[in-house]
């Protein structure tokens, strides 16, 4: 499974509609409206790099109101349990 985190810059007046349309794309598992320099973060989970290209370049980028995207491919996942163990100071 390949996970991509996509930062989306959208037309301000269309953010809710853009988010909804992105959420309906096959392979998009979550869409978050966020503060900061980007408007939305979409999480894409697909089986192959070809599906990443199809999902993001051919579908997500073509949603009306999307101005720009920046895609980050995850190469390792950490669960909450893993993070707590990694950053534990050894105390109980």
Write the layout of secondary structure elements.
Layout: E1 2-10, H1 15-23, E2 28-33, E3 40-46, H2 49-59, E4 66-73, H3 80-86
Antiparallel strand pairs: 1-3, 1-4, 2-3
What would your notes on this structure say?
There is one protein chain. By secondary structure, the chain is an alpha+beta fold. It has one domain (2-86): Alpha-Beta Plaits (2-Layer Sandwich), CATH 3.30.70. Helices cover 29% and strands 33% of the residues. It is built from 3 helices and 4 strands; from the N terminus they run βαββαβα. It has a 4-stranded antiparallel β-sheet with strand order 2-3-1-4. Strand 2 (28-33) and strand 3 form a beta hairpin. The model has no long low-confidence stretch (mean pLDDT 91).
Order of helices and strands: EHEEHEH
In CATH's first tier, which class applies? Answer: Alpha Beta
In the predicted model, the low-confidence regions spanning at least 5 consecutive residues are none
CATH H-tier superfamily: Lrp/AsnC effector binding domain/regulation of amino acid metabolism (RAM) domain
User: What form results from the Cα inertia axes?
Assistant: globular
Q: What do the pLDDT scores average to?
A: 91
Q: Let me know the largest β-sheet.
A: 4 strands, antiparallel
How many domain modules? 1
Number of helices: 3
State the secondary-structure class: alpha+beta
In short:
This protein has three helices and four strands; from the N terminus they run E-H-E-E-H-E-H. The protein is an alpha+beta fold and 92 residues long.
């Amino acid at each position: 499974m390949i996970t991509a985190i996509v930062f989306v810059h959208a037309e301000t007046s269309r953010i809710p509609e853009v988010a909804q349309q992105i959420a309906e794309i096959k392979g998009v598992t979550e869409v978050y409206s966020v503060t900061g320099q980007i408007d939305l973060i979409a999480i894409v989970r697909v089986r192959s790099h070809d599906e990443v290209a199809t999902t993001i370049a051919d579908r997500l980028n073509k949603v009306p109101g999307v101005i720009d995207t920046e895609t980050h491919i995850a190469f390792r996942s950490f669960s909450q349990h893993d993070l707590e163990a990694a950053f534990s100071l050894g105390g109980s």
